[in-house]
Amino acid sequence: MPVRRPSRTASLRLHRRFHSRILRNCRDVAVWLPPGYGDPRRRHPVVYFHDGQNIFDPLTSFLGQAWHAGERAEELIRARAIVPPVMVGIYNTGFNRMNEYAPTRGEFTGWDGEKCRSTGDGKRYAKFAATELKPFIDARYLTRSGPRDTSVVGSSMGGLIALYCALWQPRVFGAAAALSPSVWWDDRAVFRDFGRLPRKPDVRLWLDMGTAEPGWEALPLYRDVLVGRGWAQGGDLEYREVAGAEHNEAAWAARIGDVLRWLLGRESVVGRDR
Fold it and tell me: Angle at CA 257, nearest 5°, toward 253 and 263?
């Protein structure tokens, strides 16, 4: 892989039209590199984000509201609060987003108020992320490739598919952060799918939701499902109800620093495999 002299500043690279044979489509992929990246003796944990155009740059984000994950990561790195990561923003594909992020077939209401159907391609999307995109990133960047150093983050339907990435690909993604996940999808299919697990996968989960979001009361019920399958709140399960927070990019941007600290905090990575 090409390695340059370590940079003192963070940088953002864009891989345009990354092709997936599994999904038979293309999308852009943004890769954020931390300050100091480029030393071949030093490798980095990787955080994958769904809805990648919303993560770093207001110019590409929905309604100009970005999460500013790069800025938050830099602040935490300077404070020596986290291990410097490589962060990967997986762009969605517009209207097809609901097909790729849905774990099952189902119906949803579009922005125009029309009823639409999802083909439920979530499992194929998770396979794309795990078996096509991740090998591409690991081959080109200085990454730690094991599941304990590989996490996935998303919000809303992106939060739902983040949970399913951990469920379907636990040997790839060792942690998932679901911000305001759409647990309502398909009559709460996520309750059923996690509730009937014969064995809990070795993955850490973050769940949060704002109390001003419609249907937020379902999240503690889902938390109880996970606890019933063996996750321990305060251990491998982080659960938060955010007072007054709404369902939008600004609310998720306000929480991304805490998410990064939970995923990448120096205390949480002690003893991880390299």
Answer: 120
CA 148 to chain CA mean position, Å: 14
- Counted domains in the chain: 1
The amino acid at 171 = R
- pTM of the full structure: 0.94
Polymer length of the chain? 274
Residue 110 in this model has a pLDDT that exceeds 70: no
Neighbour tally for 187: CB within 10 Å: 9
- Picking from 83, 81, 49, 84, the residue whose alpha carbon sits closest to that of residue 68 is 49
Determine the angle formed by the axes of helices 249-264 and 69-78, rounding to 10 degrees.
40
Q: Is 79 helix (H, G, I), strand (E, B) or coil?
A: coil
Domain that holds residue 247: 11-264
- Specify whether the CB–CB gap between 161 and 195 falls below 8 A: no
What are the tokens at 203?
A: 């993955």
Is 4 a member of any domain? no
Residues whose CB falls within 8 Å of the CB of residue 89, separated by 6 or more in sequence, listed in order: 29, 30, 31, 32, 49, 51, 52, 53, 54, 55, 56
Parallel, antiparallel, or unpaired: how do β-strands 86-90 and 106-109 relate? Answer: unpaired
Residue 145 falls inside a structural domain: yes
Residue 248 placed within a domain: yes
Q: What is the pLDDT of residues 162-203, one digit of tens each?
A: 999 999 999 999 999 999 999 999 999 999 999 999 999 999
Alpha-carbon torsion angle 271, 162, 72, 80, nearest 10: 0
Strand partners, 207: 178, 239
Quote the tokens at residue 141: 């960047």
Return the CATH number at 229.
Answer: 3.40.50.1820
Six token digits for residue 16: 């345009």
Name the residue type at position 105: R
* Domain-embedded: residue 3: no
